Amino acid sequence: MGPKKKVARKRKPEEDSKGSEVEEEIGGEERDGMEEKGREKIDQKKGKDKYIGAHVSISGGIWKAVEECLAIGGRSFALFLGSQRSWKRPALSSTAAEKFQKACAESGFDPVHILPHGSYLMNCGSPKQDVFEKSQALLVDEMSRCSALGLCHFNLHPGSSLGSITSEQCQEKIAQAINYAHQQTSSVVTVLENMCGQGSTVGGQFSELRGIIDRVRDQSRVGVCLDTCHAFAAGYDLSAEGGVKSVLDEFDQVVGLSYLRALHLNDSKGKLGCHLDRHEDIGQGQIGFPAFRDIVNEPRLDNIPLILETPGRPGYEYTEQIELLYSLCVD
Question: What three-state secondary structure class fits 44?
Fold first, then answer.
């Protein structure tokens, strides 16, 4: 697939925390044309039941995430809800929330296809009481922002034991924070992301995700986002022939497909079972194109957000990777 003209620099998810960094300016007429082109792409895609998108920037205002998703031809998107650098952030203004909801409604985005991502500062499984309390408070803040934005899901990394408590004790603390956040908020579903098994992180094994869910009182408000790179790095072989089906079958047996709310689509720089969180562009890593072809043609993954978090390279950034993934769909 050849290089395409870029209308805006693609921002990596972690760059959203850098308030001083601003995307290249795009004029109003060019932006309008870009949004229209994005809508056409969405309408004309193969794979009508697949909602493929990417993690987009909120630079310039949280509603700008909608514009960026349209610009790259996405049908779903992830975003941060504030700075990734601070435990305490300015309150979300009602004006910003209204503009975001209006942009979503006008562009046809259903809240179920939007997946806010939690701050990397949070560690709801921390054995350090001060960190646990700050993480729990931040979780409440993030979920309250979701409610104000009219969103129904909130994705977070479960947490880490820091090597000083057992996995089971860490799972208990994570569930404790979730239960508290559920008491302080309404409706929003906490979506646990599987991890790669690096260090003392919890959630690399499906059984650990199930362990957290079992400890959550309102299980109608908890779900899972499967990250393909994390799963592969944790030892789940998506690259094998029939690997996607096999991994989903195992997830169903251990956790239950009713809990699956989203996927993060990332190839892996590291080999199977490496326990390294190293995302790679689609088809350029150890997982490979065949697995992603199986993913976009798997009926059990219909109607949920499939979110790219890939690094990108010139001529093969989010726009091109979304286009490629839709081209792999068999009608």
Answer: helix
- Residue 205 belongs to domain spanning: 49-327
- The tokens of 268 are what? 């892996």
* Residue 95 lies inside a defined structural domain of this protein: yes
* Residue 39 falls inside a structural domain: no
DSSP state letter for 162: T
So which residues are the catalytic ones?
A: 85, 117, 120, 157, 193, 227, 230, 264, 277, 279, 309
**61 alpha-carbon distance from chain centroid:** 19
- What are 112-136's pLDDT values in tens digits? 999 999 999 999 999 999 999 999 9
pLDDT at 239 over 60: yes
CB 143 within 8 A of CB 190: yes
Cα(48)–Cα(291) distance, rounded to whole angstroms?
A: 19
Structural domain contains residue 33: no
The one-letter amino acid code at 195 reads M
Among the listed residues 142, 149, 215, the one whose alpha carbon sits nearest the alpha carbon of residue 181 = 142
Q: Which of 203, 126, 129, 210 is nearest to 170 (CA)?
A: 126
Question: Where do we find the tokens 């992603």?
Answer: 292
Q: Spell out a b/e string for 182-206, using b for 16 or more CB atoms within 10 Å of the CB, else e.
A: beebeebbbbbbbbbbbebbbbbbb
